[in-house]
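ok, trying the design again with the full structure, not the truncated one.
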């Protein structure tokens, strides 16, 4: 888009822009869609969706975690995570069981099939890195910045309602 298409009133630096390209949230959204789009065919080949892959990544790192720990690690709610876990369990990649010392706690653990899948999918991070086209240092800097952004937004929204007031 060129600057000739700017809507009236958006030239005033005191007035927030409503142009799509000026929205930081859109830049994040577009980047996220682009990257997850690269994952799709790679994960389709092993029968995983991107969110399922993220659950598996946590399990490959820790082998066994509680559902609560998965919720925290993946920034998902229980209603979103539970169906992911059930589908992965139905595919034989993980198993759930209640902790013997506290039946309120559900643990999720890799099965041998889930462990074996890690070897089949080892090239995915390399393919994603190639598609991103940034240096390791640039990726690390972007991750640091995005983690800080997430922490700032989480702090800002903790215990607050909507920030936008209806007219």
């Amino acid at each position: 888009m060129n600057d000739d298409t700017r809507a009236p009133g958006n030239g005033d630096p005191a007035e927030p822009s409503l142009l799509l390209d000026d929205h930081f949230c859109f830049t994040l959204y577009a980047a996220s869609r682009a990257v997850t789009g690269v994952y799709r065919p790679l994960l389709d080949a092993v029968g995983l969706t991107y969110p399922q892959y993220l659950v598996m990544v946590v399990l490959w790192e820790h082998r066994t975690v509680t559902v609560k720990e998965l919720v925290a690690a993946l920034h998902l709610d229980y209603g979103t995570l539970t169906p992911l876990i059930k589908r992965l369990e139905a595919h034989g990649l993980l198993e759930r069981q209640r902790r013997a010392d506290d039946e309120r706690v559900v643990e999720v653990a890799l099965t041998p099939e889930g462990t074996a899948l890690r070897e089949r999918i080892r090239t995915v991070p390399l393919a994603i890195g190639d598609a991103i086209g940034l240096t390791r240092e640039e990726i690390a800097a972007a991750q640091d910045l995005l983690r800080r952004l997430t922490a700032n937004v989480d702090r800002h929204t903790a215990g607050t309602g909507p920030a936008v007031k209806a007219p």
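Keeping the full-length input from now on. Residues 136-157 form the longest helix (22 residues).
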